Amino acid sequence: MFLTKDDRKISIIGALLLLGLTLTTGITVYNAMRQQIETVLGRGLTGALDGKALLFETRIEKGIEDTRALSLRPFIVQFMVELNENLENETARNNLTRNVNSLTQIGFSAAVIYDRNNNVLSQVGTFSSYENPVIPLDAEGNVKLIWDNSFVLQTTVDVFNQGHKIGKITSEMKLPNLTRSFMEIKSAGSSAELLICAKLPQNYRTLACLIRDSSTVRFTHISTNIDRDHISPKEMALSGKSGVASALDYRNVPVIEAFTSLPTLGLLMTLKLNQEELFLPVNDKLKDIILYLVAMISAEILLLNWFIRKLINSEKAARQAKIKAEEYSTELTKKEKELRERLKEMTCLYEIRRTMELEVSIDGVCQKILKYLNAALQSPDTSASEIVVNDKRYVSEDHDKKRLIEADSSNIIEIFKPARQSERRAIFNAFIQSDIFIDHENKGYIRIYYERDVPDSRVEEQKLIDAIASDLESWIEFRKLEEALVSVAEGQVHKIGQELHDNIGQQIAAVAFQAGALELQVSDAQVPRAQLTELAASIVEQTQSLVINIKQLSKVLLPFELEANGLVTALETLATGVSATYNVECRFESNLGEEDLGSVIALNLYRVAQEAVNNAMTHGKAEHILISLMVNEAEKKLIHLMIRDDGHGFDESHIKNNFFSGMGIKIMHYRAKQLNGKLTILKRNESGIEVHFIVPLDQGENA
């Protein structure tokens, strides 16, 4: 059947309409897919970049704070002052060198200390080469991020003493976590590039950039865009903005670029992907779509309807995918926020515990706790912190926050019952609190006050201040124990000095007097020989008594048997001496061979045995004592000292009256802690007690 002219026109017009409609639909779908892919990938790039930026900011700021902490170390400042006064002071130089050499054990790869005239006082480690790429983090050049096949943070801080500069410290610290994060970009795509840039101090229109692509790491300088009509992502990052945008990069290649800034460090970071790679799957599918459209055109109107229905279904699927992607993005954002809060809390605890290792005063510790605690709060602008301990009160420095604490007490109600751990229960109130217990007594509390109603998320902050209160309790108790140990040591020195003055000194004076009398009588020929002999015998007798007293005093200061013959012989001698002196049956047994325990472990084991035996005789009135020293036969990793007696033991009244808080038992617990060991005191079923002191053997002289 032949087609008429009008039929041909209709066919041509229909075909053209179908072609136009199909092409329009195809282009619309293509653009929608491009936008969808660009949006989803942009969010993915932004999430990945934000994670890397947070890691960079946290690690670099921590490294800077670690170096600043070095400049505040009292011993380093003291030795620098002495060397500034006299460069030839070898004692101060050696002490400073020992302190500097220890820095490599706490994370620093290199460090150097200068005096006020820039003379090198001490140095440890090897600094990065000046030829390595450097990204300045401040205008003065005191903080630099160096690329030496890995990231190295170089920090220079001035050291002050009483307001005067006495020198400076320059340190380097390797940052493996940043290096790993910087190198791992292949998951973003084969054309992905990660840039870390900073403005050059001498030229603010030029950026010093470290670029990581799929194969290499290179350093280059990039000029900022001077065309104000087209602001580049890097310029937006320099102005403090974050986001994702399409742009032409420095290679004039179209890219999708996520950007963010680290204002505290003066850095900007971008993560980009070539648009060609981004839309490669779409372009590959476009060829199939064109063939498909040609087939549909040949099928005319029926196939057109089928195609439209399929297109509608595809559009619905795309919208559903977009909705799901947005839901996932919202959920990820929420999780990211929660992780950021937990990271702030972990950082707060880490900084507080690090501060407790460096600070020696409770005022300094409490002030640092308030500083780091306020930074970790979820609503720091509407919150305030307070610490009360040992009748002293510390509050946040911000005056606007102080007014929250000083407000009328009728407006401040407890949000958590001031109880301990699991007994704490949440009620509707306006502050949270964690009590501070020292030696089982309530000595204060930590509080966080809130200006508005408190949501359920404050439960996490309750856990945070509980952990801080627990750390503060341990720190205060440890400081009290150290002070008690110093007091005991001073008492022993005073006792020994008094013994030397009152007993041995008097005996020596008497011997000297009699020797002078003997000298006078020998020169007198009329003095009988028997009288001279008697006087000489008296001098010999007093001298022998003096030697015995000196030996007894020396044994108190240093167990010579332990130094000369080892721990086993020393404990045997201790048991024999107790049996002979106090009329007590004291036995010793051991399976220890010729193992070298190390002088530190041996001395502590001997002192614990002395204290336990003394307690058994003095407090327990024991008649039979067993000292046992055993080593694990199979692995030989633990040594077990046990002292058992049949004395009075202890009862519940002793526990209620803090019987186990005496200085001797505290010192035994302290020795166990210093050796990473464990001290246990048990009540025997028959009578008496058992003291078990277990110490690992793999620590050597480092205990």
Task: Report on the architecture of this protein.
- It is built from 17 helices and 21 strands.
- The protein has 703 residues and is an alpha+beta fold.
- It folds into four domains: 12-346, no CATH class; 347-463, Beta-Lactamase; 483-551; 558-702, Heat Shock Protein 90 (2-Layer Sandwich).
- A six-stranded antiparallel beta sheet has the order 2-1-6-5-4-3. Strands 9-8-7-12-11-10 form a six-stranded antiparallel beta sheet.
Please render the helix and strand layout as text.
Blueprint: H1 5-70, H2 74-85, H3 90-101, E1 110-115, E2 120-125, E3 134-136, E4 143-147, E5 151-161, E6 164-174, H4 176-183, E7 193-200, E8 203-212, E9 217-223, H5 233-238, E10 243-248, E11 254-262, E12 267-274, H6 275-278, H7 280-298, H8 300-358, H9 362-376, E13 383-389, E14 392-395, H10 399-405, E15 431-438, E16 441-450, H11 458-522, H12 529-557, H13 560-565, H14 567-582, E17 585-590, H15 599-618, E18 624-631, E19 638-645, H16 652-656, H17 663-674, E20 678-683, E21 689-696
Parallel strand pairs: 17-18
Antiparallel strand pairs: 1-2, 1-6, 3-4, 4-5, 5-6, 7-8, 7-12, 8-9, 10-11, 11-12, 13-14, 13-16, 15-16, 18-19, 19-21, 20-21
Helix pairs in contact: 1-4, 1-7, 1-8, 2-3, 8-9, 8-11, 9-11, 11-12, 14-15, 15-17
